[in-house]
């Protein structure tokens, strides 16, 4: 696990200055998921990602944390294009992306490492 963290999320902070963040429930102190940005080499863009434990789905955590991450990134780094990769059957996640201001761009191709996934994107800041 340590090697995985060093190779991916910690490397993202060292190379790009941003990465994924743990999301902790303030009442219980339990880890409930993650949210954050990473630079996708395959897409040549900054990708917003989030994942929460099932009992936290539908409670607004993804929208709240992703909005905070995007706002912080724009404040620190300026205007930017942010993308998200989503399973087209995941209506909940697509709803979150729409709330954040991302819109459907195109289906991803197999050579982009996807297959049946969709790319959403949005511009943030003074773009």
Describe this structure in words.
This protein has 127 residues and is α+β, with helices and mostly antiparallel strands. The protein has one domain: Gcn5-related N-acetyltransferase (GNAT) (Aminopeptidase, 3-Layer(aba) Sandwich), CATH 3.40.630. It has helices at 2-7, 9-16, 61-77, 91-100; strands at 20-24, 31-40, 45-52, 80-86, 103-107, 118-124. It has a 6-stranded mixed beta sheet. A hairpin with a 6-residue loop joins strand 1 (20-24) and strand 2 (31-40). Helix 3 (61-77) packs parallel to helix 4 (91-100). The chain is globular, with a radius of gyration of 15 Å. The termini are far apart. The relative contact order is 0.15.
- Strand arrangement, largest sheet? 1-2-3-4-6-5
Succession of helices and strands: HHEEEHEHEE
Would you identify the CATH H-level superfamily? Gcn5-related N-acetyltransferase (GNAT)
Q: What spatial form do the alpha-carbon principal axes imply?
A: globular
Major sheet description: 6 strands, mixed
CATH architecture classification name: 3-Layer(aba) Sandwich
H/I helix tally: 4
Distance between the amino and carboxyl termini: 38 Å
Low-confidence stretches: none
- Mean pLDDT, to the nearest integer, reads 89
Strand content: 25-35%
CATH topology: Aminopeptidase
Q: Given the helix and strand composition, which structural class is it?
A: alpha+beta
């Amino acid at each position: 696990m340590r090697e995985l963290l060093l190779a991916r999320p910690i490397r993202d902070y060292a190379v790009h200055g941003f990465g994924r963040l743990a999301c902790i429930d303030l009442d219980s102190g339990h880890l409930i998921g993650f949210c954050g940005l990473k630079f996708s080499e395959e897409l040549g863009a900054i990708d917003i990602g989030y994942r929460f434990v099932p009992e936290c789905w539908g409670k607004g955590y993804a929208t709240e944390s992703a909005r905070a991450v995007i706002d912080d990134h724009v404040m620190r780094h300026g205007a930017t294009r942010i993308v998200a990769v989503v399973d087209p059957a995941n209506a909940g996640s697509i709803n979150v992306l729409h709330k954040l201001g991302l819109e459907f761009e195109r289906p991803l191709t197999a050579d982009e490492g996807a297959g049946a996934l969709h790319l959403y994107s949005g511009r943030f800041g003074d773009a």
